[in-house]
């Protein structure tokens, strides 16, 4: 009993913490629900009392019938007497009673059953409805409190807590708390109640037998508990995580994988990581097989022991009646099994408690900077003087790295102050301190002489407008995005702000004008358009302070000019701080402050700092790529606008963003949040998305190699399926022995039946293990095979296929993770369940209908209901709360958007707006949850009461057949036990069976992928190759539109050629087709019209692997893989093993070697996911080394230095210049100074080349290129 007490105390401890936010009303609901659970738990043991009395009645009636079969005996005064009036005595000197009205007795018992069933119906409804309703109210409160607390946290807290982790907590962790405080608690209380009352019934009925059964019942409880836990844990997906991360990394980097021919290498890497998932799945199947085998073995051994010892108490000592034996044995057995079945609830409580700890710790945490605080001063008048006084600062996530070191800066009101300096010198950090995203560790920041920590934070942020390098727009209309700047903005003010930001004209050109949806993250807008909307949003605040953080650095030439003009307008009369990598954008500032190592090292105007020849002078000199200093100073007066950026077209960046967003959306099932363009595309494809379920024969064909395992598993399943009917047969035989009057014959039969029970138990152990292991093995081998061929098929598709958001990395990774494992639902364990069920039902029906077809027909009427109740009961084990996840999609979208963009929201002081939006979105799922509480209650109540009604009708009709048709009473028990037990088992089994329909759909998805013929084949045998590859390239009348945007023609007749060893440079504005031409050359796409010729051969006729093996590429955003520096460089040539000497040589050529040798692990240094452990310049040099290792004849440089600071760019550009030697090279220009030495410069506009020649030729021609260089005007 100490164990039981400890068990209960542990459970109370596990569940107590989660109810911290319950109100008195909810506590009352939970108490009422608990009382209902307690009383409901007593119903099954109470039914056993009726069952015991009914058994005694049947046995007594059978004995009476046997006695009265002798014509010399009669029934007088309820006692069997001889005709002469002498009482008939049995061998043990006892008398036999008579006069039993079996039909009347069975009617009475039927009413008992109906009464208990009606009570159970009511109690179980309230039990579930009250607990689930109370939980829904608490979870609603917790969600609101948690999100509100997160939104008022300081930014430093977000640096230490990833957005992905927080989103997981909001969805999964709070759902775990829900599981731990909803229906699971009531189920737990009910099971503990059944355990207690079951043991009470046993002790009251016969303490000796109870003690014997108790001796072995912990073994049954343990087995039932372990098996339930083993079933309900989701370790397969956890084990798959490593392989899943490989798949995600590869699919997110398909252009790089394709460019370097890494498809085969990545397939093998993925397959190697699948081994762990396969091994865990097989191990899990074996463990479940052992547990199930152990459970059934112990149960049958327990049957044997209990019936053997119980029969001695019935026959020899008369301490028990036959009904008492049944009552005691099943009471204790029921108690033990319920105790075991309570253990999954403990698992839910433990998970809920762990989740609650992290959630409640956050709720209890006091933010260091509380953005909801009403405290702090509000100044009557704001001038806008900002001053940093000896500020020291390091980020909370990197406390060992000092960012600001005794910084002293003065920014005067109404002036524009520019901060310049190398990356990491602390420029952007100052802006974040001004916004109070962080507080200094030492020193202070003042506004008009007041420490900003003493000012009201919401008021302070309302004074500030900020425009960042990558502005965040929200998934709503343009007008609403501008309104985010300030509450209560009128439409007139929105329009005025748009005009000031130079955004009005392009907005009015859009079909929906200000009501145009910008898409997730502004994905439907170009970089320049997003930037201008962000400026309008900043201006509508009418801020006293304007912060410009590299606001034009990522824009192309055309966009930058417009945005810069808007910024120049915006800063008039405001205190403005501007940070820029491009010094051309800051030379007009009133004051320029030079930063280095977290300090200011110089201050002055543009001319003063040039004369001083310090940090600023060095940066300007570097950026002008070594031009003559005096000449540079003169041209500075005319404008540094010569040094311009040409960034990748907005289509490409939007596409990248869409793919990133789709990963998160599809994982959470949030397809509704796709913006209108995607919705349109989806609606266009609606017909082709309807997928017919795959035929089972084809699925089995993939499972063919495992047929020996499936055969063995089916054999085990057939044996297991026949166990329940055999049990019913033996159980009824045991009951039948109590009416045998010959004691020796009675003892012999009982011993024989007990031996059969033992034999079946031993056989069950092996057959259960055989079924579990064999089908796990066959299923896991199938899953691995399908995952591998599925991944292989994905890597064989053309790049255009990946542009479709439906085939985003997130969607494909999810498909590999879930679809392949779901296919097992149509094979493997599913086949085992089918064989088991068919054997079970077949044997049960044969036995039942053979011994009494009439009674079998009555019982059969209840079978569907009993089976359904099994499904409901098993469903309750897993917790209904899990089903509410999908209802929270809309709220999840708001929380995800808010947390992903928390800096923007904090800067706009819009935290409360998003909290209100989130709480509003919670209302609908909350209402549904309260409604579902009643639905769940009704379903559960039906599931619980149906067995009582079935027993009432079946035993009443059985009594009729015994009385009127002479059916032996043991046949009544045999028929009912066989059919009811089989139906219940079938219902329970089906709830754990993988969804058959889903499996066929999942298989169809995979087969659709496997059957798809890519438009550009990667086969080495298709297309031709030649030995003397020179590298001559010609674009002949190329026209092209991206498959995902068929309405926009990108290339409109591209004509240009380059000879071997020459360098061709493309220049032009965003979207003119520069990057597209490179992708046609790589055969990521084929032109719609025209040809790309390589050495005179049309690219469409060349073997793709052969062509790509001669091309090396360095992109604007190089993709590195999560492995070592050496392995990333080796990736340049996947056709062979690249030696360490070659790696070092390539690294030296890429100006990388010296940096690598300063690292602790040198070339074995891990670069992190997507090269996150390295700076952009370091990543770019690794990408160059990777291209050099390939020793390509053609080198493609796609804006390879565009995102680098001046210092990094110089080193990378030197490496690129060296790499170009002796190769045909195509450069997409970022800064015009980098391409002046090109053999051919091709100026592109709207998909065609409008002029070409050398730098000198084009300058002499004084057309588009000349205009671009001298004025920075857009190319038209």
Report on the structure:
With 1276 residues, the chain is an alpha/beta fold. The protein contains 48 helices and 22 strands. The strands form 5 sheets. A 6-stranded mixed β-sheet has the order 8-9-10-5-11-12. Strands 18-19-20-15-21-22 form a 6-stranded mixed β-sheet. Helix 6 runs antiparallel to helix 35, helix 20 (527-539) runs parallel beside helix 21 and helix 22 (606-612) packs across helix 23. The longest helix has 55 residues, at 911-965. The chain starts with a helix and ends in a 5-residue tail after the last helix. The model is unreliable at 1-14, 625-689 and 877-882 (pLDDT under 50).
Q: What's the overall geometry?
A: elongated
Low-confidence stretches at least 5 residues in length (pLDDT < 50)? 1-14, 625-689, 877-882
User: Could you describe the largest sheet, including whether it forms a barrel?
Assistant: 6 strands, mixed
Share of helical residues = 55-70%
- Alpha-beta content class: alpha/beta
The share of residues in extended strands comes to: 5-15%
Measured distance between first and last alpha carbons: 89 Å
Count the DSSP helices.
48
Gyration radius, rounded: 39 Å
The count of β-strands is: 22
Strand arrangement across the biggest beta sheet = 8-9-10-5-11-12
Mean pLDDT: 80
Domain ABC transporter: 386-622, 1033-1271
Pfam family, one: ABC_tran
GO biological process, one term: oligopeptide export from mitochondrion
Transmembrane segments: 110-136, 185-205, 211-232, 286-309, 707-730, 750-770, 847-868, 935-955, 967-986
């Amino acid at each position: 009993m100490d164990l039981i007490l400890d068990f209960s105390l542990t459970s109370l401890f596990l569940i107590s913490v989660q109810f911290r936010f319950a109100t008195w009303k909810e506590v009352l609901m939970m108490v009422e629900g608990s009382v209902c659970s307690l009383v409901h738990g007593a119903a099954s043991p109470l039914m056993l009392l009726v069952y015991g009395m009914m058994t005694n009645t049947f046995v007594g009636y059978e004995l009476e019938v046997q006695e009265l079969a002798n014509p010399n005996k009669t029934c007088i005064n309820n006692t069997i007497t001889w005709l002469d009036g002498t009482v008939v005595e049995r061998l043990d000197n006892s008398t036999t009673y008579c006069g039993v009205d079996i039909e009347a007795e069975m009617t009475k018992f039927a009413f008992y059953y109906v009464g208990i069933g009606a009570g159970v119906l009511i109690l179980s409804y309230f039990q579930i409805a009250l607990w689930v309703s109370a939980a829904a109210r608490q979870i609603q409160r917790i969600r609101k409190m948690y999100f509100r607390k997160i939104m008022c946290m300081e930014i430093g807290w977000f640096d230490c807590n990833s957005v992905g982790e927080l989103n997981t907590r909001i969805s999964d962790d709070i759902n775990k708390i829900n599981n731990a405080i909803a229906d699971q608690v009531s189920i737990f209380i009910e099971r503990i109640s059944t355990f207690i009352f079951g043991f009470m019934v046993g002790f009251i009925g016969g303490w000796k037998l109870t003690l014997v059964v108790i001796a072995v019942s912990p073994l049954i409880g343990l087995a039932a508990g372990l098996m339930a836990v083993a079933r309900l844990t989701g370790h397969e997906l956890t084990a798959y995580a490593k392989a899943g991360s490989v798949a995600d990394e590869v699919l997110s980097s398909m252009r790089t994988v394709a460019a370097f021919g890494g498809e085969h290498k990545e397939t093998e890497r993925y397959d190697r990581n699948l081994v762990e998932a396969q091994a865990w799945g097989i191990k899990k199947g074996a463990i479940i097989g052992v547990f199930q085998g152990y459970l059934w073995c112990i149960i049958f051994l327990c049957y044997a022991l209990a019936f053997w010892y119980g029969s001695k108490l019935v026959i020899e000592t008369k301490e028990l009646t036959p009904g008492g034996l049944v009552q005691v044995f099943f009471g204790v057995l029921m108690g033990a099994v319920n105790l075991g079945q309570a253990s999954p609830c403990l698992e839910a409580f433990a998970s809920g408690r762990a989740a609650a700890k992290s959630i409640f710790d956050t709720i209890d945490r006091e933010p260091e900077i509380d953005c909801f605080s009403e405290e702090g001063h509000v100044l009557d008048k704001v001038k806008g003087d900002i001053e940093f006084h000896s500020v020291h600062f390091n980020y909370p996530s990197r406390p060992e790295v000092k960012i600001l070191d005794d910084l002293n800066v003065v920014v005067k009101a109404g002036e524009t102050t520019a901060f310049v300096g190398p990356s990491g010198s602390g420029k952007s950090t100052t802006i974040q301190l001004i916004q109070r995203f962080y507080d200094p560790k030492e020193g202070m920041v003042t506004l008009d002489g007041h420490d900003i920590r003493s000012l009201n934070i919401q008021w302070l942020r309302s004074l500030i407008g900020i425009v960042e390098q990558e502005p965040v727009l929200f998934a709503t209309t343009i007008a609403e995005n501008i309104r985010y700047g300030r509450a209560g903005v009128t439409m007139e003010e929105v329009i005025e702000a748009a005009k000031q930001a130079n955004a009005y004209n392009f907005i009015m050109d859009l079909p929906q004008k200000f009501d145009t949806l910008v898409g997730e993250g502004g994905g439907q807008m170009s970089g320049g358009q997003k930037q201008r909307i962000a400026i309008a949003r900043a201006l509508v605040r009418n801020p006293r302070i304007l912060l410009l953080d590299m606001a034009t650095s990522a824009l192309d030439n055309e966009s930058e000019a417009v945005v810069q003009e808007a910024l120049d307008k915006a800063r008039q009369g405001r205190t403005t701080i501007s940070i820029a990598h491009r010094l051309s954008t800051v030379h007009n500032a009133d004051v320029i402050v030079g930063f280095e190592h977290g300090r200011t090292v110089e201050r002055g105007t543009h001319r003063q700092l040039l004369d001083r020849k310090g940090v600023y002078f060095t940066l300007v000199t570097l950026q002008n790529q070594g031009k003559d200093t005096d000449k540079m100073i003169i041209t500075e007066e005319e404008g540094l606008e010569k040094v311009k950026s040409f960034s990748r077209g907005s289509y490409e960046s939007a596409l990248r963003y869409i793919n990133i967003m789709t990963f998160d959306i599809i994982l959470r099932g949030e397809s509704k949040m796709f913006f209108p363009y995607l919705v349109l595309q989806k609606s266009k494809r609606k017909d082709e998305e309807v997928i017919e379920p795959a035929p089972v024969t084809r699925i089995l064909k993939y499972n063919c190699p495992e047929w020996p395992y499936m055969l063995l598993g089916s054999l085990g399943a057939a044996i297991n399926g026949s166990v329940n009917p055999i049990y019913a047969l033996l159980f009824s035989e045991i009951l039948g022995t109590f009416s045998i009057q010959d004691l020796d014959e009675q003892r012999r039969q009982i011993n024989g039946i007990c031996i059969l029970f033992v034999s079946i138990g031993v056989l069950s152990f092996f057959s259960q293990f055989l079924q579990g292991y064999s089908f796990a093995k066959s299923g896991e081998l199938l899953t691995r095979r399908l995952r591998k061929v599925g991944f292989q098929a994905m890597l064989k598709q053309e790049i255009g296929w990946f542009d479709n958001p439906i085939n985003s990395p997130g969607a494909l990774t999810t498909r590999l993770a879930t679809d392949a494992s779901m296919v097992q639902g149509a094979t493997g364990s599913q086949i085992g369940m089918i064989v088991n069920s068919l054997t079970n039902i077949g044997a049960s029906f044969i036995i039942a209908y053979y011994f009494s077809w009439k009674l079998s027909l009555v019982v059969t009427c209840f079978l569907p209901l009993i089976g359904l109740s099994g499904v409901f009961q098993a469903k309750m084990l897993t917790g209904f709360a899990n089903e509410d996840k999908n209802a929270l999609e809309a709220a999840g979208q708001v929380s995800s958007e808010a947390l992903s963009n928390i800096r923007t929201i904090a800067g706009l002081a819009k935290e409360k707006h998003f909290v209100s939006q989130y709480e509003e979105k919670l209302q609908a799922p909350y209402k549904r949850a309260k409604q579902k509480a009643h639905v769940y209650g009704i379903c559960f109540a039906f599931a619980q009461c149906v067995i009582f009604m079935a027993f009432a009708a079946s035993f009443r009709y059985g009594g009729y057949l015994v009385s009127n048709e002479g059916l032996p009473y043991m046949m009544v028990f045999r028929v009912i036990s066989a059919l009811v037990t089989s139906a219940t088992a079938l219902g329970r089994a089906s709830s754990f069976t993988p969804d058959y329909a889903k499996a066929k759909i999942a298989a169809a998805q995979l087969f659709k992928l496997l059957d798809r013929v890519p438009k550009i084949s990667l086969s080495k045998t298709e297309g031709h190759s030649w030995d003397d590859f020179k590298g001559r390239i010609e674009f002949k009348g190329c026209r092209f539109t991206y498959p995902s945007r068929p309405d926009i023609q990108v290339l409109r007749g591209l004509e240009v050629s380059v000879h071997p060893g020459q360098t061709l440079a493309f220049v032009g504005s965003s979207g003119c087709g520069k990057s597209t031409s490179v992708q046609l050359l790589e055969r990521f796409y084929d032109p719609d019209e025209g040809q790309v010729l390589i050495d005179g051969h049309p690219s469409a006729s060349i073997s793709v692997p052969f062509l790509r093996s001669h091309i090396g590429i360095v992109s604007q955003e190089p993709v590195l893989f999560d492995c070592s520096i050496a392995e990333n460089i080796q990736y340049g040539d996947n056709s062979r093993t690249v030696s360490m000497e070659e790696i070092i040589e390539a690294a030296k050529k890429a100006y990388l070697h010296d940096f690598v040798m300063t690292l602790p692990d040198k070339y074995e240094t891990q670069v992190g996911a997507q090269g996150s452990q390295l700076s952009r310049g370091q990543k770019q040099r690794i990408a160059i080394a990777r291209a050099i290792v390939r020793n390509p004849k053609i080198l493609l440089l796609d804006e390879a230095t565009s995102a680098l600071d001046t210092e990094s760019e110089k080193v990378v550009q030197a490496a690129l210049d060296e790499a170009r030697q002796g190769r045909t090279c195509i450069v997409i220009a970022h800064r015009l100074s980098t391409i002046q030495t090109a053999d051919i410069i091709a100026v592109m506009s709207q998909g065609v080349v409008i002029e070409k020649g050398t730098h000198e030729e084009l300058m002499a021609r004084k057309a588009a290129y000349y205009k671009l260089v001298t004025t920075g005007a857009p190319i038209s």
